[in-house]
Amino acid sequence: MAGQIKARTLKVPITNVYAKGDYCAQLNLGKPPQRVNLILDTGSSTLVVKQSAVKQNVENQSDVNQSLENHSAYRPEDDKLLTPTSLAQEVNYGIGGWDGPVITTRVAICEDKKTLDKQPHLHLPHQPLVLESCHLAIVSGAKQQQSFGDADGIFGLGYHHLNKSYDLKAYLDRHNYSPAVTYPWPFANTNAKNRSQSEANVKCAAKSNNQDSSTNNPKAEAPLSSEDLTQFKQFLWQQPERDLIPYFTDLEEHGLTANKFAFYCRRSSVHVSNDASTPQQLADDPLNQGWLILGDAEQHTEFYQGELNSIKVEHDIYYNVTLTSIRVGDQTPIAAAPLEEKYRKNYYSNAIVDTGASAIALTEPLYRAMLNDLAAISPKFAPLIAPFKDISAQQTGIDASALELSQWPDISFTFVGDMDVKKGTSTESPDRQEVSIVCKPESYWQLNAPSEGRACFKILSQLPNWPNQTLLGLPLLNDHLVIFDRSVHKTGVIRFAEASSEQDKKHKEKRQGR
């Protein structure tokens, strides 16, 4: 296929109205095509979708769906191309998670011509990207679907190491499931009696896996329940593991696009200029829109100005980078500690870049030092930030009239850079330059969020029991074109460029909340 189809670049419109600030792209699944809105997440690799039959908050979701082009979650029973497998997946996002079956079906992006935004200087024809048989996970239960808000699932843009599945064929054969497939999902029984029996079954699963099937009495066992994520994960870990090719990697390996993509956005919270706005009006607000560019994003010069600055990706698990310091205004840079040795085996570096995070989460020492430097600039700052020590404050915000953003400093994040191979500079140079990315007050404070006239502070302290690793989410990406170039070296680079002055002019008044 790679020899028959020329790799191309596709510009995909995205919006943040479904997932409380995180951005979604529309994909079509199956035949006939079913349109779904999936969160773009570089912190995971799985392509996963809800089932409409078990959708949460039906009344509210119905309103959103009717207003926004009547989309709905995936209906597997209507998909004529659905092919079950014996595989299952589970993912925990830190806050929320899911488990469920893996099927294969047709997956297409930018199949609807009306989603295409043509640029005169590119002369690009409308060419959707289509995989006729792609792995897709389906969330097993209604409660687990809350992880996605009003989005329909997640489009994981990470590397293949994060896309683990588990082959349950031997288990299903042993328990007389015929055919031995995970869809329809065999682990959905959730009554109290069977949940109790399920706990016992998980504990003995490893033992039974090593026994001859003739010695088992599957009819005597109540079915396992997947409702308890922690418990069911223990069961899955006892099954043969298999890495699946993530959707974007699959596109690249089929020769459909280059091994890089870009992300362009303006906000990390939904911009609410009027509390009476309908969902469609929110979606039509340019500040709530952005772009995912699959392929060679550098050609889209309408988005950026100046040079592209390259940050080295340290490991191809997450988009791991090395943060060397942060700097508040013109004050002395605050050094970022290396990742503690005990965490290196699983976390690899002291920072990751994550499009699926709507905030920046600093390590506790960096967060305290940042607050001290802000307080040194103005004693008025600390009381405004104080409410956001509680994550629930993101749901209420503070009175935006109390803020004077012109008084707040830029906050710069400095990273280990990567020499630009396009300029012929050796990437092995020991004096690799550092790269600083500026986060402006308009980005780390979000005006008109979560409602009209309110404001939210989007730099947080790390979660309890988390390693000393900074999570670099949307506030740092705002007002930049960010290119995840996985074609460079073995692990790739991340290139940042400032938003073009044309784009800045277009959105200046809205970005300031007017």
TrEMBL record:
- Give start-end positions of Polar residues composition bias: 58-70, 207-218
Q: Where is this region: Disordered?
A: 58-77, 196-224
Presence of the UniProt keyword Transmembrane in the record: no
Show where the Peptidase A1 domain sits: 23-494
Which InterPro entries does the protein's record reference?
Aspartic_peptidase_A1, Aspartic_peptidase_AS, Pepsin-like_dom, PEPTIDASE_A1, Peptidase_aspartic_dom_sf
UniProt key word Protease: yes
Short name of any one Pfam family annotated for the protein: Asp
Q: Which GO terms describe its biological process?
A: proteolysis
* Annotated keywords: Aspartyl protease, Hydrolase, Protease, Signal, Zymogen
The GO molecular function terms of this record are: aspartic-type endopeptidase activity
The record's listing under Gene3D superfamilies reads: Acid Proteases
Concerning its family, UniProt says: Belongs to the peptidase A1 family.
Query: What is the protein name for this chain?
Result: A1 family peptidase
